[in-house]
Amino acid sequence: MKLPSAATLILMLAATCARLNAHAQDKPLQLDARTQARLQLRIAPLTAAHSSDQVSAFATVVDPTPLLTLLSDLATAQSAYTASQAEAARSQALARDASLSAKASEAATAQARSDQARVRLLKQRLGLEWGAYFTTLSDNGLRQLGSDLAAARCALVRVDTPAGQGLKGAKTVSLDLGALGFADARVLGVARTADARLQSPGLMTLVSGENAAYLSIGLSLKASLYSGGGTSGLLIPNAALLRQGGHVYAFIKTNAQTFDRRIVTPTRVTPEGLIVTSGFTSGEKVVVQGASALLTAATSVPADEE
């Protein structure tokens, strides 16, 4: 006797299930062993999985020249303010003794205030253009940073991901230098300019040590972001996943002839599949081959009820 083709069998199965229940998608499917064999169903037990909070990213070595220029302007402005502040104090003392005119004293005070305003403006520019981290450094810290950047003892590296995925909460960054190995970068904070192509706010990081000398300006690198945590749960493999109507499903074989369709709500997306923390139990048998045939049967509605 000639057996029906797989496509014909699927249609027959769909029609049979639909006649039994117009809402079969909400109820388990019942399939005998012969039908399961013809559909070539294959199952696998659900196993525990752990995914580190690693996110692939793109890194670019930043040109520090604009920062060094700004730091130089700030140092000059601070020196000018220190001098004008001292001059204003002397002028005020002399004006009180009538040794200097009030007009000259007021001019010295105005100059000190002008120099102070310029220092304040340059510090604001430092935060607006480079990030809040740089405004927290002392004058000595800024001078040391400028010196280290100029001597290639450290390097500024911008890190981006598509749509900013994984940037929030990132604590460390690992840079892939190819044949030169890997370099760790310290996260300084969110960058102040966005990457329009990736729609990423970006992170500004700092690489220190001997590897910094190999980070030439404009160099593009692969990077990995780490937040220091991870996600544990059960892995629903890619072969078991079905997408329909804005949901992701998987079929679980609950006994010899029963298949239960469940919505998959992932906690973490991995290259191997989706990690879930609810809705499934370790050891349950998930359909990893032939699931699409089951979905066709589960979602079919008789023509007279459409």
TrEMBL record:
Keywords linked to the UniProt accession: Signal
Signal peptide: 1-24
Protein name, UniProt field: Multidrug efflux pump subunit AcrA (Membrane-fusion protein)
Organism of derivation: Asticcacaulis taihuensis
